[in-house]
Design a protein that fits this description.
This protein is mainly α. The chain is built from ten helices and no strands. The radius of gyration is 20 Å and the shape is globular.
Length: 223
């Protein structure tokens, strides 16, 4: 932003600056990407995209191990189909891809709970597969975008691939719709269906509210 000279500051400029300054701090996620429709949602979204800054290597490792333990503890409550060692790797993947896209790992965990309750063999009536319930045609397209090897729908039963594609897909939808709630609804309904809802003046909230509820629940248990 260009600075105005001391003797040429217009009142409108002062008003604009007053609105800009409160959000001008560096945030863990680009504010141009996240544009909450409601002010009350900002605190939640900031929590979702918050990253703990640990400057020392041992602090980073301590934080990572703590979060992974939390994820495993949550997953153990469900019939996951994973043994202990496999669940260790799943928690690693959740942490890794959450960090890659700037999510709180517990938020991605909440999304997995909402989608599949951690059942790696889950398959919906529409044919969505795995932890993050990805349709094969969507998975194929996402795999091509991310240059991942695609060997048909069985690829989605690989936990790492499923989590990687699911996290990438949500991030892609977030950039498109510029709102976390809408991105979640697009993840559930599909972006084309969501746009049709929005053209009709309908803003779906049921699915995103369910993810938020699960997220808040596991956050509270992790304190």
């Amino acid at each position: 932003m260009k600075y105005f000279s001391d003797n040429k500051i217009w009142l409108s400029s002062i008003i604009s600056i007053a609105f800009i300054l409160p959000i001008s701090e560096k945030k863990p996620f680009d504010l141009n990407v996240i544009s909450p429709a409601y002010v009350k949602e900002w605190n939640f979204q900031e929590s979702v995209f918050s990253k703990r800054v640990a400057h020392k290597k041992n602090e980073k490792l301590k934080y990572k191990n703590k979060v992974k333990r939390q994820i495993r503890k949550i997953a153990f409550q469900y019939k996951t189909g994973f043994n202990k060692n496999k669940l260790e790797m799943v928690s690693e993947h959740i942490f890794e891809y959450s960090q890659k896209y700037g999510y709180d790992p517990l938020f991605l965990t909440a999304l997995i709970i909402t989608e599949s309750s951690f059942n790696n063999r889950a398959k919906s009536h529409q044919g969505a597969i795995g932890l993050m319930q990805i349709l094969p045609r969507t998975g194929s397209a996402l795999a091509s975008e991310t240059q991942m090897t695609w060997k048909g729908k069985k690829t989605l039963y690989d936990p790492e691939v499923n989590i990687a594609l699911g996290a990438f897909y949500l991030n892609k939808l977030l950039k498109r719709f510029r709102d976390l709630s809408l991105a979640l609804e697009a993840y559930n309904h599909g972006p084309t269906q969501l746009r049709q809802f929005l053209k009709l003046g309908i803003r779906p909230k049921k699915y995103s509210n369910k993810v938020y509820k699960n997220y808040n629940m596991i956050k509270a248990r992790s304190i």
